């Protein structure tokens, strides 16, 4: 198990290095911050002073070397917009994204397991067909369209829910979570249903029934355990997508998470904050991948045995 995880850590760390170099290069393609933060009437001396104060007067390779040195010291610089520490701004925004993603995935997984198991228990029944149709529809709806329609219908027309912000009670969570939830929920219902149909017709479930096992034990004790691998694979990818792709939801609903912070940093050419936000997101995805691999190894001994000694 330890050997397997060590191998996965080393192999997963390589893409992280590409992220470090990629975000540094791509951030500078957004333009020169000097042109944004200084007025058109600024003199060449003022422009040179601003660039020198923020390390923008150095060659790109020198800036890259300084950036790598800062990462090694866990120093991500200061925001051009606010003068605050970039790391503090990112760590202040990231919990909001994690909370949104965690609640969404918890609801999606729990609901998909219950509905997927119920649909698979009687395949091709009217209830199964309704569940399949609704789940495929949910998986096909673009999140930005659903978010806009939710704001229009429930926020503007009916006035039941707030359209943006985080001040208030539980109602401020409804539209952001519903928008993030609809596609993962639809996909997971399809995956759980398909895996459970195969598991419930497998020889080991027939043997369990012949030995007098209750239907509850057959479904949740035998079939669901063996159907968990494909569901875990998809759930892991969806969870990573939620952490990495909450930009649209956070922008539409004014949710103060890492996605909105990235968009603001790109628009304001705030390189330090953008680099810190992308790096923290990449490290989080890296950690989630390792946890998913550990779950694979716990569920299937063949995964552990496949790792070289």
TrEMBL record:
InterPro entries attached to this UniProt entry: BPD_transp_1_N, MetI-like, MetI-like_sf
Chief site of localization: membrane
CDD domains per the UniProt record, alphabetical: TM_PBP2
Domain of life: Bacteria
Organism listed in the record: Murinocardiopsis flavida
Keywords: Cell membrane, Membrane, Transmembrane, Transmembrane helix, Transport
Keyword Transcription: no
Any GO molecular function: dipeptide transmembrane transporter activity
Localization of this protein: Cell membrane
Residue ranges that the Swiss-Prot or TrEMBL entry lists as coiled coil: none
One Pfam family cited in the UniProt record for this chain: BPD_transp_1
Ranges where the ABC transmembrane type-1 domain occurs: 94-292
Family as reported in the entry's similarity comment: Belongs to the binding-protein-dependent transport system permease family.
GO cellular component: plasma membrane
The protein, known as: Peptide/nickel transport system permease protein
Membrane-crossing residue ranges in chain numbering: 12-31, 98-121, 133-161, 181-205, 226-253, 273-299
Bilayer topology annotation: Multi-pass membrane protein
